[in-house]
Amino acid sequence: MGRRRGEALEAAILEAAWDELSERGYANLTFDSVARRAGTSKPVLYRRWADKQKLVEAAVVRRNVIQLTTPADTGSLRGDLIATLTELSEKRGPFLTQLSLLLAGYFAETGTSFAELREMILAGRRSGRDEIMERAIERGEIDPAKLTPRIASLPFDLLRGETMMTLRPVAPEVIEEIVDTIFLPLVR
């Protein structure tokens, strides 16, 4: 087997960086450990990423892009939100909890916020939240004048908070309460 190059090499390095981050945390991740795990050399890493921060950001972005969820399109805002929040809770909740714990050192060292990291991950792509809200506006389910950015993010923020506090998927009745009792009355 020949040497890996290009995308295959980069994928192997970013997977190794993610594995090192997952197993050792940000503080203990080194270019040496990532290079060893990826079966390459430190100079190969330094040609692509100037420092540990940039390497970790690239690994997190790659992992998130692989796991991006397509928002549900059930034909109603309520249905879209419940389906999407349920999927996020079941599939992404544990990942986001793990990510926040693993990156505590990264956030402290770099001064980067979770919101800034989210923007790096989205990299100009429209968020699933925005797709859901735009469809609801088109269907006449939302008063656009009431839909501020903070209100639009509210159901997702509440889901994230619940996931962080319980460290498990959010119960269906809690998701329904977030949607029916808290969010929908604010936008209608």
From TrEMBL:
Record feature DNA-binding region, as residue ranges: 30-49
GO molecular function: DNA-binding transcription factor activity; transcription cis-regulatory region binding
InterPro entries: Homeodomain-like_sf, HTH-type_TetR-like_transc_reg, HTH_TetR, Tet_transcr_reg_TetR-rel_C_sf, TetR_C
Source superkingdom: Bacteria
Stretches assigned to the HTH tetR-type domain: 7-67
PROSITE patterns for the chain: HTH_TETR_2
Key words, A-Z: DNA-binding, Transcription, Transcription regulation
Name of a matching Pfam family: TetR_N
PANTHER family membership: HTH-TYPE TRANSCRIPTIONAL REGULATOR RUTR, TETR-FAMILY TRANSCRIPTIONAL REGULATOR
Protein name: TetR family transcriptional regulator
